[in-house]
Design a protein that fits this description.
Strand order of the largest sheet: 2-1-6-5-8
Radius of gyration: 23 Å
Shape: elongated
Number of strands: 12
Helix content: 25-40%
Order of helices and strands: EHEEEHEHEEHEHHEEHHHEE
Length: 258
Amino acid sequence: MRIDILTLFPQFFSTPLQSAIFQRAQEKALVSFNIWNIRQYTHDKHHVVDDYPFGGGAGMLLKPEPVFEALEDILQGQTAKTDPVPIILTTPQGEKFSQPLAHKLAQHRRIIIICGHYEGVDDRIREHWVTHEISIGDYVLSGGELPALVISDALVRLMPGVLGSEESATDDSFSGGLLEYPQFTRPAEFHGLKVPDVLLSGNHAKISAWRREQSLLKTASQRPDLLEKACLSSKEKDWLSGLISGTNRETPSGKLPG
């Protein structure tokens, strides 16, 4: 995959993209990053990229000219008809980023991310170029650089061969519509706190059932909104319904632990 990022602060990406999962993916030639400085597409001696909004209002807007020129240079005549490329604008007004959206974007060979800044961008950028407006949460950041890294990280870890174990990506929270189950490592007892016996049993069927039930419990407790779209069996739905109403202390496979 090729990821192009348009930004006013290219130095922001220097260290993150040379670290951890990003470095591993690039070393394996699974992803390439191209960071484009929007200021290089200005034509005045001060490299001005912002201006006041027509009609008044607080703050400044990112001007359309440098962004248009940058995208034309990056795409070099390529059009959506010949080879569709998702062009993402990071904005608090966008669709909230999610694991299903990450999976969709990861199917593309290339994506472009425009890092928003200032009070926003001239809307002609969005109207003419943008295919996806994405927000990483209901809060406002100083710029779109952090969201661009978040989106990139989520996509890179989905690439086969990047993670140490192919199961890691599928077991992550949200990958199956539920939060991830609790996990433990050695020692089996620490400060009087013990690892659940089922995880030490060696019985993989019981371990799998326990993990599923723990994912359901955690999701029902911490993110019940996710259950509406999660793929659940009728038995699991009945159990959760009884759990929420307080009429049920049984799991689909037996007594509720703890």
